[in-house]
Amino acid sequence: MVVLMSISFTLATHRFRRNIVRLPWPLNRLTGFNAFWYSHHLLGFVYVLLLVHGTFLFLAHSWAQKTTWLYISIPLLLYLGERSLRACRSEYYSVEILKVSVLPGNVFSLVMLKPRGFKYRSGQYIFLQCPAISQFEWHPFSITSAPGDEYLSVHIRTVGDWTRELKCVFTDHVNSKPLPGRAKLGHLVKMERESQPRLLVDGPYGAPAQDYQNYDVLLLVGLGIGATPFVSILKDLLNNTKTMEEHTPTGSTTETTRSEDSSNSFGSLNTTPSGKRKFQSRTGTGQAQAYFYWVTREAGSLEWFKGVMDEVAEMDRKGQIELHNYLTSVYDESDARSTLITMVQALNHAKHGVDILSGTRARTHFARPEWKEVFGRIASKHAYKTVGVFYCGMPLLAKELNALSLEFTRKTATRFEFHKEYF
């Protein structure tokens, strides 16, 4: 048991799991996600040996004292039940691929026909399995489509062997025609159903970002591909606002709740008669304020969600959402080396309303955001409000955002609650 658990532990360490350790052939197969994944199935043999160990106890002679099987059987039955449920559900949720978009920065998007009866909330994630690659491997990906959409979409970055093979399966297939370009989800193009490989879906599963509806104001921070759960949230906010406006009769008056802070037009979370929670503003428009900060290293990454950004900008006629793109691979805006491009960019954005780098209406800034200024601006604008801070990315920035949330909660009249999700 100790030997098998030591093998599982070693292959699960960061250097082995991330394929950082370079070993000669054939020992190179002991690194990477596959080695980590399959080595953990050795724990099944550990349970068998534990039963053997518990049966041949030297100090216990009565069968009633040998209770190892009792403590193992209950969690084992629960585990087998969960795996059986996943297998049945994934077969039922076998999806049809509608569109494949190949994007810069080793990213591609899959747009799938939403399975019948599949319900989820923005911010949640799903597991995908492609039997053509492996019958056992399931990998999690955040959902980038909104719950009200007729399709299901994910954006996948090829960082491992499984994701690379998945991209090849759907882009190098003989009869499939992927669509290189921008992932604008408004126009769906069907692929040939008979020739495309099977793709199974399991989920949805909960994530911290799904609780965005509990807050008056949202601060969404995505690092690189970590922006994926927030794209769904932005679209869902706009879809909900649009639905509420359509169901509000023209000229009708709604009761509003007044407070001392009459200058703040964004309100709190109310409950409908059916028990479903929704955002209710003090002006009766049902809007919720959201600030989205997307920090990326490469300019090509801005192409990932260009279509989505344009859709958000087109639908958001009332300034419900603020979009901020930050490019960290160039000099700071105050640096003399980037002054010229900053001026040209500002003039073009002021004249045409389009950013030069991203090609969207969201202005692209250089270097990293001044997070203390961001928190200070939100705190002064939304006094006596609760701001939900949601972060998805690397752990280093999470510590800084968590510290600032605690600091501004203590020093200002605005409450910041921090939630993190690591990629």
UniProtKB/TrEMBL annotation:
The gene is LOC111016998. Residues 90-211 form the FAD-binding FR-type domain. This is Respiratory burst oxidase homolog protein E-like. Its main location: membrane. The chain crosses the membrane at residues 42-60. Keywords: Calcium, FAD, Flavoprotein, Membrane, Metal-binding, NADP, Oxidoreductase, Peroxidase, Transmembrane, Transmembrane helix. Gene3D superfamilies: Nucleotide-binding domain of ferredoxin-NADP reductase (FNR) module, Translation factors. It is found in: Membrane. One of its GO terms (cellular component) is plasma membrane. It comes from the Eukaryota. It comes from Momordica charantia. CDD domains: NOX_Duox_like_FAD_NADP (cd06186).
